[in-house]
Write a structure and sequence with these properties.
Length: 326
């Protein structure tokens, strides 16, 4: 089996049929394994998967005895897979037309890891934007154990997606994945899979950036936002700072480039919107936590843009901050 499409899910029965249809309708789908690993969903996922598995022999369903969280459930899905490569997919995203055939062609080149682009969508899958990853946005190959190539890659990173945040855009050689273990320090962070790739960099990790849109991501459906958007950005800011600091040291060029990329996501518009939300919904969004995140994210900011963002966050009145909603 050349490719497994591994899909860890929890209570995604509403979206899973559309996701699986987008995969199983692809040319060449009969020749790949589709593995759904269910973290003990309480919805109709088991019944749904029983019907789908009966129709499609290449679809496997494995139900875990308890919810382990995305870090452990994703690791389990790769452990159970049979393919030489695993495409880490999400149970609510949609595979693009002809994407499977393109990925099967890509992995013939034999690199350890492939990063695919995605279309960011609204919850109803109306397209919003083609999500950036690297700048310039052209196909390229990097050996990330080579310091010069790693520096070139980190400096091209537009956001955390270049550092493996979006699992649906990752196709990994399973033997490479298995060279390191699940890092216990990152279980519960949502970024244990990214920690695995960071750890692999110094051991040897060849990466191919395809610059190809291969799937559509369903926005506004992020379970990690259930406790508020400020806490959702806490996962992003603190999680990726920890990745850079842990594997390269807080004063390294790599860690600084990771922090720069995170500021692109935790941008002026984002922090202003969050400031306004903290004012309007203090029972959900916590201003003290937001103050801390802005301090952390912009601690080593040097550009005029970033320094202005820090000042505006501190001093811009709420009525003006609310204009960033638009």
């Amino acid at each position: 089996m050349k490719l497994s499409i591994t899909i860890p899910v929890y209570n995604f029965a509403e979206f899973l049929p559309e996701t699986l249809d987008s995969i199983l309708s692809q040319e060449g789908a009969d020749g790949v394994e589709v593995l759904v690993v269910d973290g003990a969903s309480s919805d109709s996922t088991p019944e749904l998967m029983t019907r789908i598995c009966a129709k499609h022999p290449n679809v496997r369903y494995y139900r875990l005895p308890a919810k382990g969280g995305i870090d452990q459930d994703m690791a389990k899905s790769v452990e159970l897979a049979r393919g030489e490569y695993c495409w880490l997919f999400s149970g609510d995203d949609i595979m693009g037309p002809n994407a499977l055939r393109a990925v099967l062609s890509e992995i013939e080149t034999g690199y350890d890891l492939y990063i695919l682009k995605h279309m960011e969508c609204f919850k109803d899958m109306r397209p919003l934007m083609e999500y950036p990853v690297l700048d310039p946005d052209v196909p390229a190959v990097f050996e990330l154990s080579d310091e010069a190539q790693r520096m070139a890659y980190f400096k091209r990173a537009v956001n955390s997606e270049a550092f493996f945040s979006f699992m649906g855009g990752l196709v990994v050689k399973r033997s490479t994945w298995n060279r390191v273990s699940l890092n216990a320090d990152f279980i519960g962070s949502c970024w244990a899979h990214a920690a695995r790739f960071f750890e692999l960099m110094k051991r040897g990790l060849s990466l191919s950036y395809t610059a190809r849109v291969a799937l559509s991501r369903r926005g506004e459906n992020d379970s990690f936002s259930n406790n508020g958007l400020v806490r959702r950005y806490q996962l992003q800011v603190e999680g990726f700072h920890k990745l850079g600091d842990t594997f390269f040291g807080p004063n390294s060029v790599e860690a600084r480039e990771v922090r720069r990329a995170i500021r692109n996501e935790f941008s002026r518009r984002v922090v202003m919107v969050l400031k306004a939300l903290c004012h309007d919904r203090p029972h959900i969004e916590k201003k003290q936590l937001l103050d801390h995140l802005v301090d952390v994210a912009y601690a080593d900011a040097r550009s005029a843009k970033d320094l202005t963002t820090k000042l505006m966050y501190r001093w811009l009145p709420i009525r003006l901050a609310k204009k960033y909603y638009c």
